[in-house]
Amino acid sequence: MPTTRDHSKLFQELATEYTKHSPRSAALNERAQQTMIDGGSHTLRLIKPFPPRLVRAQGAYIHDADGHSILDFWQGHYTNILGHNPKVITDALARAFESGWGLQTGFTDELQIQVAELICKQTQSERVRFTTSGALATMNAIMLARAFTGRDLVLKVGGGWHGGQPWGLVGVNFAKPSEPWRVEGQGLPSSVANEVIVTRYNRPDILRAHFEQYGNRLACFIVEPFMGAGGFMPATREYLRTARELCDHYGVVLIFDEVISGFRFCAGTLGVLYGVQPDLTTLAKIIGGGMPVAAVAGRAAILQLCGRAGGNRVRFAGGTYSAHPASMLAAKTLLTYLVEHENEIYPRLAQLGAQMRQAIEDAFLAEGIFVRCTGHPNDALGGSSFAVPQFPYDEKQSLDNPDDVNNPSLCDVELRDHIFQLALLLEDVHVVHGGGAVSTAHTEQDIARLGEAARRVAQRIKKYL
Ligand SMILES: Cc1ncc(COP(=O)(O)O)c(C=O)c1O
Questions:
Q1: What is the CATH architecture of 8-85+342-464?
Q2: Is the pLDDT of residue 392 over 70?
Q3: Would the pLDDT of 2 be above 70?
Q4: Is the pLDDT of residue 125 over 90?
Q5: In this predicted structure, what is the pLDDT of residue 459?
Q6: DSSP notation for 31-63
């Protein structure tokens, strides 16, 4: 049984074909590299050998400069729960811009209040403050926790991505259980290496041991109730309950990072669905309706540290573009829509998500390639719109922890992350890390198309495995 595979020849073959398939995007990529590092501004978007350059996006599809209509399961970093450019939002924005409303004013307005009310109600939070990115939300939530507790240490989960901010940049990429977690990137304050403790997902025993060792020095435990970058997997009920109990016992701020999961499984948070209320919740992606909105929501006693009553001790100022009028309009329009249509939207996404996982598994298994998807819900979530194919070398391999699916000696990570993505692009289907999520714009026909494309990919690559 292999423990790693060399895919360089297959990748080269796919890349050559893809360059012929997308000559305009190839040329635009050459040009982009003259002014932008690697030709763009976000690593994940810069698919190797080059990304399709888009001219339009609508519903489940993106359209590129080479005339391809590409079935998209990334949906704007998972922001677009209604698909690309849903009319309900673009109409509201178009009307607003026509009526003299939309660009930054530098003032507050009623829309902001309405969005704050919606978020507080749906997430069972007392207060909220807006900013513009998930990374800023998690960074400010951690600063609030450190100020509130007067402690320095941050506990996070190995494999958890909380955005490019100092405390988030430790223990993101896979490390063997026997190896220390790394600080990932240079230029960070040297203190970060000693301020972040990394624990394992879904392991209450290890979590307990970490609290026993560091509990009295911990400011916060930041955790995703549904891990995104770590392989799309839910926390067990026991794990989150243990986290709550330990945080209460040791006086630690519990932060749920719901940048991916917020409004993805219901018109609210997983904290609400699990019945485990964190002290702070970070939100972004979906809540902005495709516009840059992020937020920290939670207990007034903690959030007030960034306000007058708390002596403005935490400099969580939101930023120039925080609560931008057009963004707030998109947020209000989307959140209202999700609340009003909750009973149709989430069961539908759950159904399509299950079909997506099945379609991918059927396609590979039919060609004799063993695959299992992560992205499954558990009893707390009810359903899930996510699917990521994992290619474990051992069919009995457990897949409920980022350490399982991101360990290249247990799973074929290269096949999932790069080969499958590029081979599917040749079929005009777009996935990231091999998978993605359905939106309400996807249909059964789209899932069937994905299944057929995945089957052709499996036929093509099986001789290389
Ligand atoms: C769970 C989680 N937290 C934080 C972030 C950072 O968000 P942003 O990219 O908006 O800074 C991400 C981004 O993918 C995320 O998935």
A1: Alpha-Beta Complex (3.90)
A2: yes
A3: no
A4: yes
A5: 97
A6: HHTTTSGGGSS-GGGS-SS-PPPEEEEEBTEEE
Which H or E run contains 423?
Answer: helix 420-425
* 134 within ligand 1 shell (Cβ under 6 A): yes
Query: Strand 196-199 relative to strand 153-157: parallel, antiparallel, unpaired?
Result: parallel
Question: How many A from CA of 395 to the centre of ligand 1?
Answer: 31
At CA 273, angle to CA 265 and CA 201, rounded to 5?
85
User: Where in the chain do CATH 3.90.1150.10 domains reside?
Assistant: 8-85+342-464
Position 177 scores a pLDDT of: 73
When the candidates are 3.90.330.10, 3.40.640.10, 3.30.70.360, 3.40.1410.10, the CATH number that belongs to 87-340 is: 3.40.640.10
pLDDT tens per residue across span 243-265: 999 999 999 999 999 999 999 99
Quote the CA–CA distance of 160 and 154 in Å, as a whole number: 13
Going by alpha carbons, the residue nearest to atom 4 of ligand 1 is: 162
Neighbours of 54 (CB within 10 A): 15
Decide if pLDDT at 335 tops 80. Answer: yes
Distance in Å, CA 259 to ligand 1 centroid: 6
The answer, yes or no, to whether residue 109 has pLDDT greater than 90, is yes
**Which pair of tokens denotes residue 8?**
């360089």
Looking up tokens 């309950």 gives 241
Ligand 1 centre to CA of 442 (Å) is: 24
Mean predicted lDDT score pLDDT of the chain: 96
Share of the chain above pLDDT 70, in %: 100
Which pLDDT band holds residue 182 (cuts at 50, 70, 90)? confident
224 with 256: CB under 8 angstroms?
A: yes
The residue whose CB lies within 8 Å of the most ligand 1 atoms, and thus the one to mutate among 233, 285, 286, is 285
How far apart, in whole angstroms, are the C-alpha atoms of residue 114 and residue 92? 15
Bond into 49 cis (ω within 30): yes
The reported pLDDT for the residue numbered 1 is: 62
Tokens 């016992």 locate to 249
pTM assigned to the model? 0.97
Average pLDDT, integer, range 412-433? 97
The residue to mutate among 41, 162, 226, 255, having the most atoms of ligand 1 within 8 angstroms of its beta carbon, is 162
Please state the length of the chain. 465
- Residue 132 CB less than 6 A away from ligand 1: no
Strand-pairing partners, residue 255, are: 222, 280
Amino acid at 417: D
Q: Does the pLDDT at position 437 exceed 70?
A: yes
Q: Helical H runs in 279-401?
A: 300-303, 325-340, 342-366
How would you classify the pairing of strands 280-283 and 294-298?
A: antiparallel
Any atom of ligand 1 within 6 Å of the Cβ of 284 = yes
